[in-house]
């Protein structure tokens, strides 16, 4: 048994096969949809969730993972004599990280926490790397240093298909959402200081991918042949395939990894979200 257990929350959107391969523990947040509570990634599938959003025009809410969830999870592994590394979704956007810190402070064991200041598979990349290094027998300081370096190099862009969910969640004003819908404006967003931030906007969905590629070249360089580029999607499989085709043509990456945007991130972004993650070469 390896001595370090890597734990994350469900904001990380890690594909199930990687969770199993690297023995990662995921603490779920809660999604409230039509008055019912669901554990993210446990009680409702991503496909069912997006189908409901489209068919019922529903606007879900999310609730942080609790102190009790973390206390139970942390105690289980501490009682096995293991060290714990918890890599969290952005503390600026959710109280989940604070719940974990409170639980950690009430447990007598070696528990380390790292605030990714990120969402979705930007967190997942860090978690998977930490779990790989833990399996290789690296110590906690080596893992944390590698995670910090990787976080600095990670570059993410994504675009939403509708502004309604950002508006309902208070991310943009109702006026901006209304104007954006009328003009068919598609924002391209990234993450800064733990929050979603606008990079630019384009008219029409057909222009989103070309602008993303342009921004990647500006920020990461043009030679990404040694990289695994990550492509995220909610329920728009056609857009995912279009982005894949352009990424292969423009960058010829070593591989492409797909991740589906989970219900918590999807609650605030809505269906039709597409994103890309790569590493800065510059």
Radius of gyration: 19 Å
Major beta sheet, specifics? Answer: 6 strands, mixed
The global form is globular
Q: In terms of per-residue confidence, which ranges show pLDDT below 50 for 5 or more consecutive residues?
A: none
Fraction of helical residues: 40-55%
What's the β-strand tally? 13
Q: Trace the largest sheet across and list its strands.
A: 10-9-8-13-11-12
Topology record:
Elements lengths: L3 E6 L6 H6 L3 E3 L2 E4 L2 E4 L6 H11 L4 E3 L3 H12 L4 E6 L7 H10 L5 E5 L5 H15 L4 H14 E6 L4 H5 L5 H9 L2 E8 L2 E9 L4 H13 L7 E6 L3 H15 L3 E6 L2 H7 L4 E6 L3
Parallel strand pairs: 1-2, 1-6, 6-7, 11-12
Antiparallel strand pairs: 3-4, 3-5, 8-9, 8-13, 9-10, 11-13
Helix pairs in contact: 3-4, 5-6
Structure, described:
By secondary structure, the protein is an alpha/beta fold. Helix content is 41%, strand content 26%. Strands 10-9-8-13-11-12 form a 6-stranded mixed beta sheet. Helix 3 crosses helix 4 and helix 5 runs antiparallel to helix 6. The radius of gyration is 19 Å and the shape is globular. The mean pLDDT is 90.
List its traits.
single chain; 282 residues; alpha/beta; 6-stranded mixed beta sheet; 4-stranded parallel beta sheet; 11 helices; 13 strands; 26% strand; globular
Summarize the structure.
With 282 residues, the chain is of the alpha/beta class. The protein is built from 11 helices and 13 strands.
